[in-house]
Design a protein that fits this description.
By secondary structure, this protein is α+β, with helices and mostly antiparallel strands. It is built from six helices and five strands; from the N terminus they run βαααββαββαα.
């Protein structure tokens, strides 16, 4: 058993076994965009908002998970520790989920996703390069968020 206790890390256990964003939110982009837009937050330390965003970003359907939030000093980060995956880790694309988190949590700089010995990380800088614009625009411009969700859906 690995212990992930570090100074400055706030652990928030979120057991979402079998819970997922409803199909209507996932399949209806305007509702999903509005829901994500209203859940955005300025601070990674806003636990309830970050938990809500993690679920809406799509981490819920992957299985059960826990969140660890580094909120004490910059760079502010979030780790999603997946307890169960329906597919092998290496074939799951976590980039859209991580991009949404980075865009919708204003001071979040890094998202890491782990499962057993596997890991994936995305920084604000890397997400911005991949998008061709500042990822934080997703949290400042609702139309840009909706356009991103349309592209991610295709």
């Amino acid at each position: 058993m690995r212990t992930r206790v570090a100074t400055g890390v706030l652990a928030v256990a979120v057991m979402l076994g079998g819970c997922a964003t409803s199909d209507s939110k996932q399949s209806d982009p305007p509702n999903r965009a509005q829901s994500l837009w209203s859940a955005r937050t300025d601070f990674v330390g806003d636990n309830s908002r970050v938990i809500e965003l993690a679920d809406q970003a799509g981490f819920g359907p992957a299985g059960t998970y826990s969140l660890s939030l580094q909120t004490r000093q910059w760079p502010y980060a979030m780790t999603v520790a997946l307890d169960h995956l329906d597919k092998p880790f290496d074939i799951v694309d976590f980039s859209a989920n991580a991009t949404l988190m980075l865009g919708l949590v204003a001071n979040l700089d890094k998202v890491s996703i782990t499962s057993d010995d596997d890991s994936y990380s995305l920084t604000t800088s890397d997400a911005s390069k991949a998008l061709g614009y500042d990822v934080k625009e997703l949290g400042r411009d609702e139309a840009k968020l909706a356009a991103y969700l349309d592209l991610a859906r295709d």
